[in-house]
Design brief:
Layout lengths: L23 H12 L4 H4 L19 H8 L8 H10 L6 H12 L9 H19 L5 H16 L3 H19 L24 H19 L21 H22 L5 H20 L3 H11 L2 H14 L2 H12 L1 H10 L8 H12 L13 H14 L13 H9 L11 H4 L3
Helix pairs in contact: 4-6, 4-17, 5-6, 5-7, 6-7, 6-8, 7-8, 9-11, 9-18, 10-11, 10-12, 11-12, 16-17
C-alpha cells in the first residue's frame, strides 16, 4: 500500500477501546473542553521552550505543558515520565487530541529552528512508544494519523523513525485481527484425573505446586497495564479487564478447592490429615517460588475458622508452626508483604489484590485536574509506579517442566465441592 493509504488499516478490525472514558457524556464534555484549550505553541513559549527537562516528573500542569515536557528539545525524553504520561493520558486527554498536540509540537516555530530536529525526534519517539505499548487505545483514524507522522519523518530525513512507525502499525493490525488464544490449552480436556491429593508423595506434591505456578503465570503474563485503569469490578465495564477478572475467578476456585480438601465430609480422618499436610507443603513451595497470588488463595482458605481448627490439630504435632505464622502474617501484615515483594527477585507472581487496593486509594486521593485545568500528574505518576511494580515479573517465566497429569489436576481442581460462584464468601475475595 502507498503511504497514508487508508487501506493500510483494515476497516473490519474490531478496535478495542480499552482506555477510553467509559461515559459518553464525560467524553463529550472532555472533547468540548479540549477544543477550547489554547494552542500548544501559544501557551508554551519563552526560554522554557528550549530548557532541558528537570529531573523528576511535574506534580501538575496543563495538557500543553505536559506535552511540551513529553517532547523535550534535547531529543532525549525522561523515560519514566513518558511511560507514565502515555499509560494514563486517556484519563485527562483523548488520544485524538494528544496526537493533534504532538502534530502541533512537531511544527516547530521559526524562532526555535536550532532546536527543531531535536524536538521532532522527541515527538516521533513519543508516538513510537504510544503505538508500541498502548496500541489498544488507538482507533482506526488515530492509526492513520500515526502513518502521517511516518510520512513527515521521511520528509525530514528521519527514515529510521518512519520505517519503525510503519512497522509498529503493521504489527498492531496483526495483533488486532488475530483472535486471542484461549487462557489454557487444556480447557476442553475431559479425561478423569487418576490421582488423589492424599495419595501423592512429597516429590509429586512439589511438582503439583510447580503446575499451580505455571497456570498462574500463564494468566499473569497476559495482564495489560491498561486493565488497571478501568473499573475492573464493575459489571458494566469489567469486560475491559478480562485478565484481572480471570485471575480473581482462579483465586476463588483455588481457595474453595483448598477448603474442600479439608472440609469434605466424605474424607476419612487419614485422608484429611494427608490432605492438610500436602496443602501446607504446596503452600510452602508456592512461597519459595514467589507465587504470592496462588499462595493468597491457600492462605485465605486455611485461615477460615472451621478449617484452621483442623489444620491446627495437625500442625501442632507434625508441622513447624513458623510457617503457619508466616501465612497468617501474609494476610494480616500488609506492610510485611509489600517489603517481601520488593525484596523478591523474578520470577515472581505478586498478589494483585494489594496493588488494586493501592490504586483505588490513589484514585480516591483527589481529582484528576483542578478548576483551572491543571492536570494532577502526581496522581497518575503514582498509578504508573504501582502498575510497573506489579508487572515487573512478567518478563521472567518459570523454568518448570509441565507434567500433563498434574497440570490438568491443578487446572481442573478435582474434588472441589459445589460453590455458588458459587458463594458470597468466595465472591468477596475479588
Amino acid at each position: 500500500k502507498r503511504k497514508g493509504d487508508e487501506a493500510a488499516v483494515p476497516s473490519s478490525c474490531a478496535w478495542p477501546f480499552w482506555t477510553r472514558p467509559p461515559e459518553p457524556q464525560q467524553a463529550q464534555a472532555q472533547e468540548a473542553q479540549e477544543a477550547q484549550a489554547p494552542l500548544l505553541w501559544e501557551e508554551v513559549r519563552g526560554d522554557a521552550d528550549t530548557a532541558p527537562v528537570a529531573p523528576g516528573a511535574p506534580r501538575s500542569g496543563t495538557a500543553n505543558a505536559l506535552v511540551a515536557l513529553l517532547t523535550p528539545p534535547t531529543g532525549i525524553p525522561d523515560y519514566e515520565y513518558m511511560s507514565a504520561f502515555l499509560l494514563t493520558h486517556t484519563k485527562f486527554i483523548t488520544t485524538t487530541t494528544l496526537l493533534a498536540k504532538l502534530r502541533e509540537r512537531y511544527d516547530v516555530p521559526e524562532r526555535l529552528s536550532l532546536a527543531e530536529p531535536f524536538i521532532q525526534m522527541s515527538v516521533l519517539t513519543a508516538v513510537e512508544h504510544l503505538v508500541r505499548h498502548h496500541w489498544r487505545c488507538l482507533s482506526q483514524g488515530e492509526a492513520l494519523e500515526v502513518l502521517r507522522f511516518a510520512d513527515r519523518a521521511d520528509e525530514a530525513g528521519l527514515s529510521d523513525h518512519a520505517e519503525l512507525l510503519r512497522q509498529l502499525v503493521a504489527e498492531m493490525n496483526l495483533s488486532c485481527v488475530e483472535p486471542a488464544p484461549p487462557p489454557f490449552a487444556e480447557a476442553h480436556i475431559t479425561y478423569k484425573v487418576p490421582v488423589e491429593l492424599h495419595d501423592l508423595n512429597s516429590e509429586a506434591v512439589t511438582r503439583l505446586a510447580q503446575q499451580f505456578t505455571l497456570i498462574e503465570f500463564e494468566l499473569f503474563s497476559k495482564l495489560k497495564p491498561e486493565e488497571f485503569l478501568t473499573s475492573w469490578a464493575s459489571h458494566e465495564w469489567g469486560h475491559l479487564a478480562p485478565t484481572i477478572r480471570a485471575m480473581s475467578r482462579r483465586l476463588n476456585d483455588v481457595s474453595h478447592w483448598v477448603v474442600s480438601m479439608v472440609a469434605n465430609e466424605a474424607l476419612s480422618d487419614a485422608a484429611r490429615r494427608a490432605n492438610i499436610l500436602a496443602l501446607l507443603k504446596i503452600a510452602e513451595e508456592l512461597r519459595n517460588m514467589n507465587n504470592f497470588q496462588t499462595l493468597s488463595a491457600f492462605s485465605s482458605a486455611l485461615s477460615k475458622q472451621r478449617i484452621s481448627e483442623q489444620v491446627t490439630a495437625v500442625t501442632s504435632t507434625l508441622v513447624d508452626k513458623n510457617f503457619v505464622q508466616l501465612m497468617e502474617q501474609f494476610i494480616i501484615n500488609r506492610t510485611h508483604y509489600l517489603q517481601t515483594i520488593k525484596a523478591c527477585k523474578p520470577p515472581l507472581i505478586p498478589f494483585i489484590g494489594t496493588f488494586q487496593t493501592d490504586l483505588v486509594h490513589i484514585e480516591d486521593s483527589g481529582p484528576n485536574a483542578d478548576a483551572l485545568g491543571a492536570v494532577n500528574f502526581q496522581k497518575f505518576l503514582l498509578k504508573h509506579r504501582t502498575v510497573t511494580e506489579l508487572l515487573r515479573g512478567q518478563g521472567h517465566p518459570y523454568a518448570f517442566d509441565r507434567v500433563p497429569i498434574l497440570y490438568h489436576y491443578a487446572f481442573v481442581l478435582p474434588g472441589r465441592l459445589p460453590s455458588a460462584a458459587d458463594d458470597d464468601e468466595a465472591n468477596a475475595a475479588i
